[in-house]
Amino acid sequence: MIPRYLVDIDLSAASVKQAEVIVIGAGIAGLFTAIRAAETDKVLLITKKSLLESNTRYAQGGIAAVISEKDSPEYHRQDTLIAGAGLCDPEAVNVLVHEGPEGVRDLIRMGTQFDLENGELALTKEGAHSQRRILHANGDATGYEIVRALSDKALQHPNIEVWDDHFVIDLITQDGECYGVWVQKPDGSKVYVQGKATVLCTGGTGQLYRYTTNPVIATGDGIAIAYRAGAVIRDMEFIQFHPTALVYPGAPRFLISEAVRGEGAVLRNINGERFMERYHHQLELAPRDIVARAIVSEIEKTNSTFVFLDFTHESEEKVKARFPTIYEFCLNYGLDLSSDWIPVAPAAHYMMGGVKTDLHGETSVKRLFACGEVSSTGVHGANRLASNSLSEAIVFGRRIVERIKELEPVNRIPDVRFANPDRELPIRPFIERRLKLQKIMLRYAGVTRTSTGLQKGYEELSKQIHIFDYRLTKREEYEFANLLVCSLLATKAALLREESRGGHFREDFPEKDDLVWRKHILFSHTDGILEERIGDV
């Protein structure tokens, strides 16, 4: 049984910190929302590591927005809906494609320096986009440039206080309303932070898997704490595996951006054969789920552990100029992107599901908002279109701040007391527990899935629920508890969805079934498993 709170809480005896708006997480969603909210409110920005450590930092490809006169919101909408495989919320997609360009202008005003070409914003194309609409910075370091600019602005803002190295253990709620957060400080002491609005910007769940493009901090904290707090969680079966992560001895699963294929790179199996024509008419630029499965299929057919990404037709000068970060990283391991075929394979990349929100980012718990990868706004459906994630964060960050302006301050401390078991955990390193969880997810809930495997995976994961019977005190223990919650929700949803759609592929149900499964699977800590049918798109 997953408890409501992970640790003992008694607000009547707690140290209390007042803030008007609490923002948890320091990627593009957290920084952008904090800066916008600080125009009218005092903001406390809490991050469990530091301002420069987030998934955004590693985003290479760019940010999708309609900038070119040859493009239109209708084209962007159509591309997003096609990639989302019938599960997008059309209203949310409309919001994204129409408000994205203004969000990009906000980023520029906040100091982000996107690449220019002949004095105009340089645009590239990525998988499943029909037009060139991807803005990038320093070639392939878009995320880092955005985080750099926003971090600088946040640190200089008089209305923003930053708490580095603080861990939000749980949300404090009463009667379906969020009053703030229970936080562990670097010295291990706890503090209750109260605010009129709490915004989850905690990123995704990449650390559910052994091989991921995500940093070590992506442990699904926001989804898990929102679930325990009673918020509705949606679409947890839809996990995007990036098709092309570096596979090389001694190297991490480093992301080789989709933009490399957008600029003409091709995929070859270990026999040197180009193979994507056997799988999709868009070849290397097919939606990510299709490319990822094609690569897995070729790996299995050729009894190998990778395929090759071939970009050798381009000049060394162009490769270095367009993809300096990827070029340098590969070079550190003796691989030259301009002259070598680069070994790649899929790795966990992005969670399409998350905390369900409305069109202003508010969850089913009052005063609780979610923005960025932690959220399920309805934009991504069953499969996120490349570079829509950064756009989503700024578009819905703007909307969240507009909604927060309507909220009245909270003027009472809720009567919340909760006692957890006081039993010491049996000694077993949490790194070992985490590794076992990741291996279970990789084996049974990866790129391809079956009923038998998912059932086995769910049962194996369920054996770990006993950790909630013990006293948790350390950050790695909280992170493991959060990963466990997310893994149980993801495997259960994948087991229930008896079809294949977007980022969810069942070998035993390989076809899409719109008649039965054109709906969302929802999870609620209080109400159990629910369904939500969607309107026509």
TrEMBL record:
<dbReference type="InterPro" id="IPR027477">
    <property type="entry name" value="Succ_DH/fumarate_Rdtase_cat_sf"/>
</dbReference>
<comment type="similarity">
    <text>Belongs to the FAD-dependent oxidoreductase 2 family. NadB subfamily.</text>
</comment>
<dbReference type="Pfam" id="PF00890">
    <property type="entry name" value="FAD_binding_2"/>
</dbReference>
<protein>
    <recommendedName>
        <fullName>L-aspartate oxidase</fullName>
        <ecNumber>1.4.3.16</ecNumber>
    </recommendedName>
</protein>
<dbReference type="InterPro" id="IPR036188">
    <property type="entry name" value="FAD/NAD-bd_sf"/>
</dbReference>
<keyword id="KW-0662">Pyridine nucleotide biosynthesis</keyword>
<dbReference type="Pfam" id="PF02910">
    <property type="entry name" value="Succ_DH_flav_C"/>
</dbReference>
<dbReference type="InterPro" id="IPR003953">
    <property type="entry name" value="FAD-dep_OxRdtase_2_FAD-bd"/>
</dbReference>
<feature type="domain" description="FAD-dependent oxidoreductase 2 FAD-binding">
    <location>
        <begin position="21"/>
        <end position="390"/>
    </location>
</feature>
<feature type="domain" description="Fumarate reductase/succinate dehydrogenase flavoprotein-like C-terminal">
    <location>
        <begin position="434"/>
        <end position="524"/>
    </location>
</feature>
<keyword id="KW-0274">FAD</keyword>
<dbReference type="InterPro" id="IPR037099">
    <property type="entry name" value="Fum_R/Succ_DH_flav-like_C_sf"/>
</dbReference>
<keyword id="KW-0285">Flavoprotein</keyword>
<dbReference type="InterPro" id="IPR005288">
    <property type="entry name" value="NadB"/>
</dbReference>
<comment type="function">
    <text>Catalyzes the oxidation of L-aspartate to iminoaspartate.</text>
</comment>
<keyword id="KW-0560">Oxidoreductase</keyword>
<comment type="pathway">
    <text>Cofactor biosynthesis; NAD(+) biosynthesis; iminoaspartate from L-aspartate (oxidase route): step 1/1.</text>
</comment>
<dbReference type="InterPro" id="IPR015939">
    <property type="entry name" value="Fum_Rdtase/Succ_DH_flav-like_C"/>
</dbReference>
<dbReference type="GO" id="GO:0008734">
    <property type="term" value="F:L-aspartate oxidase activity"/>
</dbReference>
